[in-house]
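Hey L., structure's done. Input below.
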Amino acid sequence: MVFLEPEKYQQRCAQLFNSYRKAICTLLPFAKIEHIGSSAIPNAFSKGDLDVYIEVLPDQFEFAIEQLKTLNFIEKQNTLRTSELCMLESLNNDEVAFQVVVTDSIFKFFLTFRDKLIASPTLVNEYNQLKLQCSHLNHDQYRAVKSDFINRVLSHP
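Output:
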């Protein structure tokens, strides 16, 4: 697995986010749209992908997913799918994923984690070191190590 330094991907991801945000706002004017993941965290290393958080009310959830699919996205296979979370991946060759989340669900942790790292350069450095130490792992192994880090960060006030 290859991790990129921020200057090699963050500007591209910010531009991509702004472009998708406009398209999403047109389809779902009621949605809360946030840039999440490493590309939203200053100085964070990343695989170079973009994650977009899209929050909707429970009664808008399935409609939102269907609308987002019109942007050439499909439901991501082999990942958690609940009545409050659906991950969509791009078929546009741009390494973009949407995390469609129901308002006030446990999946607000995407925002909490991002905000805790933005507020702590020390945590960003720890996260970067973890990523570099995981570069030899496969995706599942990396996800497990990353999940432990995320849970540790989220468990501290």
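The first helix runs from residue 10 to 27. The radius of gyration is 15 Å.

-- N.
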